[in-house]
Amino acid sequence: MLNTNLSKIRPEGHYQNDCWIILMVICFSVFIYGLIEGFSVQYSDIPPSILGYRMYVVHGSSMEPTIMNGSLIIVKEKEAEMIQIDEIITYLCYRSQKPCTTHRVVGIEKWSNGSVGEVSFVTMGDANRVEDPTLVQSCKVVGVVRRIIEPHHVRNITLWLKITVKLVMFFIFMLLGARVYSKKSF
To answer: Where in the sequence is the domain holding 85, given as residue range(s)?
Structure first.
């Protein structure tokens, strides 16, 4: 005969409680992380990096037709010495009106500052007829453009995300309501 101690058996639904607590901790953690990152973007010129990638929305037409106004670009961090002519870079702007600019590298100037070698970039927008008036120092480079998502795709992604978030929130509230209702019925 089995010798079973009934006090060690977990009550029915206890595993559901554990899963619910884990889900709430994960949601709360993501919420707090989002708040922290949101505030950090407001007070700095560079958005947060995720595995060396950053996302920007392009405001302006200087890179058309390659990058349209309103496009989303994904920028990958890259060592300045590895950047080559014809790559598109995002860099901190020399003007205070805009935090970043994205232009094509049309020239590279290398010079030495004592024992240290420095690299600067000559840049130009694809729609511009002249090079940018100021060299871009290597310390100002944020990264190289790796992916361009056109404005109409950005709108589709945004719409999909809005619908998905609403559906997920609806199902979470339905589960929460069902859980509360089931506890009251006993």
So the answer is: 53-151
